[in-house]
Amino acid sequence: MLSVVQFITAALVGSVALYAFSRPRNKLPPGPPGLPLLGNVLQLPATQLFLKLDEWAKVYGDLYTINVAGKKIVVLSSATSSADLLDRKSGVTSGRPRFIMAGEILCRNLLYMFMPYGEQLRRLRHITHEGFNVRACEAYYPFQEQEAANLVRSILADSGDLAKKLKHAAAAATWRSLYSGPSLTPEDEEKVRRVDDAGETVLGASMPMAFLVDVIPIMKRLPNWAASWKAWGEKWFWDTDKFFHGLLEEGKQRKNGVDHVGFIASTAPSFQKFEVTEQEAAWTAGGLFIAGVETSGATLYYFVQAMLLYPEIARTAQRYIDHVVGNRPPTFKDRDQLPYIVAVMKETMRWRPVAALGVPHVADADLEYRGYVIPKGTQLIGNVWSIAHDAAFFPEPEKYDPSRFIDSNGKVKKPFPDYHDDIVAYGAGRRMCPGRNFANNMMFMDIAYMLWAFDFALAKDEHGEELIPDEHKFEDHGLVIHAATFPGVLKPRRNDLGELLPVA
Fold first, then answer.
1. Which domains occur in the chain, in start order?
2. pTM of the prediction?
3. Which of 49, 102, 261, 331 is the most buried (most CB within 10 A)?
4. 319 pLDDT exceeds 70?
5. What DSSP element (H or E) covers 474?
6. Per-residue 3-state assignment (H helix, E strand, C coil) for 291-339
């Protein structure tokens, strides 16, 4: 007969065994072999990680695991795996890993990008949707057209430093959508520069190994006197918080005497409804500005590069524009008659997605997929570069070809039935960019205006040899990649171009 001690021991062993066999076993998809303890750490490049992950996808498939010093990360490299896990299972794959320096210290988890999924994020997405849904964005059409004309006027006056001009155009339109008012004044220019600097700081801090605290989290407990980086980060937060609050107050007061009312002024009455605090509203607007300007300006620069490398595409697009608008500038009323221009915008974002790596998700529960078990807490990276170059959805993915988005009737194709959208650059699931409607509108109008106004020609060196941009040369700007600076010539297509532009 069993003693009491033996009976209890047997019961405990049985319970442990039952638990072990009843819970899903962690069976992650295989990936590149690594070193003991370190895993794949030494194989990961300091820059342009998206290219290394894409290289591994060609060996290990669209679903594989990397080991970063014991931390397991599942990489999704196709539209199918991304849609299956990040869209269809978004209820348990919308978490975020800890960004200690960028998210917790610099931003106090007030930016969408780093915010854990939960009640706070849902509230802020509600109010952002109110200001940037498809219908709400129609209110921004007039000044988006004005800023596109201002961009052409700026290039016509001086075609130098094109990347800066494109970023400025994105900043001007985004600024007006958020904070109301006329086009940028000299005083506003300084504020825009400061928001831009804030974006550079936050995005830089989000890069792997930028700060040791993201590798050794316990360092966050260090007192400020022993951690100068922490003291600097906390001071940066409070300085930026004060600045964003100032912008919020200005935006709320601009309701009269302006040609439109922006996001802050129009949604201010809803702050109380959705229980959004002043601080949350200030950082939401600031975060939208950071994300929109950085990505839109970089995308427009890639558009120019594509027109230089694929002149036949530019000529085709111009024929469509000339047929529809003739000698006048394009407007949003022309968009339905310009499907090829919409396709050019979509193809630019597919060909060179500027948020190439995306932002990691985290599984909030165990997941079973394709016979594998992905345990709770595992990071999921939807490598946007690989997804946008998935040959199953985009044949000949390295080729720049807007016609892939045009159907047999000459219309813009509907999004793929197995994927949430044909613009994969905006992310997936409940983490999709909330400002994508506004961004699409702005880039369509800027692209249409530039194609209407300019011919794109390769620059030449002192020997008359054409200088061809290197389409595979990138620059890291935190989580965003830019095209390396390239030469090019934008020639006015009309002698009276300046006179045809609407009055500034």
1. 4-500 (1.10.630.10)
2. 0.90
3. 102
4. yes
5. strand 474-477
6. HHHHHHHHHHHHHHHHHHHCHHHHHHHHHHHHHHHCCCCCCHHHHHHCH
